[in-house]
Amino acid sequence: MPNTVFKPIEIMKPVPVRSSSLAYVAYDSRRKILQVEFRDGTVYQYATVPVQTYHDLLRADSKGSYFNHCIRSCYPHAALRPAPPSASV
Residue 75: which pLDDT band, with cuts at 50, 70 and 90? Predict the structure, then answer.
């Protein structure tokens, strides 16, 4: 996306969510960017996300299912932080 610069959302406090796959979400309404932190530590940002989609995610009974069906492949995205390497024993 040429006009979108992905960087951590610093002005908004991440909202913890009850989900087996998602840990936190944050939304920048000015830039329409949704930031998602997964339980494994991976952080992604999704561009051009309407505020209603963010609110629907927060209200969804299954946040992981809503994310997978309505966000994951529907919006341009970039990884901000990849999953940490697995600890070897």
Answer: very high
* pTM of this structure: 0.82
* Rg (alpha carbons) of the chain, rounded to whole number: 13
The kind and range of the H/E element at 86 are: none
The DSSP H or E segment spanning 79 is strand 77-81
Between CA 78 and CA 89 the distance in angstroms is 31
Residue-wise DSSP of 31-42: TTEEEEEETTS-
What does the domain layout of the chain look like in residue ranges? 21-81
Residue 27, SS3 per DSSP: strand
Q: For residues 76 and 88, what is the distance between their CA atoms, to the nearest angstrom? A: 33
